[in-house]
Amino acid sequence: MKAIQLIFKTSNSTAPLIARLMLGIVMFPHGTQKMLGWFGGYGFSGTMNSFTGAMHIPAALAFLAILAEFAGSLGLITGLLSRVAAFGIATNMVVAIATVHGANGFFMNWFGNQKGEGFEYHLLAIGLALVVLIHGAGKASLDAVIQRKLTAGKAAATT
């Protein structure tokens, strides 16, 4: 099977649909904070400055992190390149745990009595991303439409 077919391959199942929509909807505000400055975010230049300056993240990786959350959330919501989007978001979450949130423990900072946020949210995001990585976009996705066209084109080429 060609790599392009593996990217778009999906089932007509509801479980990956739910996983990708929930992950996309939850990540959308975070992505728009970083890219557009919505929801009290710093916008693209402010986030780039924070990532490259204070956090010492190389500019190319900082750009990819912003893109993964912004474009990745849109990809998950529409079901377009869902596996790629899920991989980008899962990677962001692993890096966030390793570099920032792991030191704060497991729990979110619900009561403001710890140094920062823990990593429980990040684990949930990784879990949802893994469902999409394994099963594809599921029902009602652009990936499914593309998969059907690729399969129809392949069938026509072999006959």
What does this structure look like?
The chain is mainly α and 159 residues long. The protein has one domain. It has seven helices and no strands. It has helices at residues 3-8, 14-36, 43-54, 59-78, 82-101, 120-135, 142-158. Helix 2 (14-36) packs across helix 3 (43-54), helix 2 (14-36) packs across helix 6 and helix 4 crosses helix 5. It is elongated, with a radius of gyration of 18 Å. The model has no long low-confidence stretch (mean pLDDT 94).
The outline comes out as: elongated
Gyration radius from CA atoms, angstroms = 18 Å
- Termini Cα gap: 18 Å
Number of helices: 7
Helix content: over 70%
Number of domains: 1
The main sheet comes to: none
Average pLDDT, rounded to a whole number, is: 94
Structural class, from secondary structure content? mainly alpha
Strand content: under 5%
Task: List low-confidence stretches.
Answer: none
Strand runs, count:
0
The ordered H/E elements are HHHHHHH
Brief summary:
The protein has 7 helices and no strands. The chain is an all-alpha fold and about 160 residues long. α2 crosses α3 and α4 packs across α5.
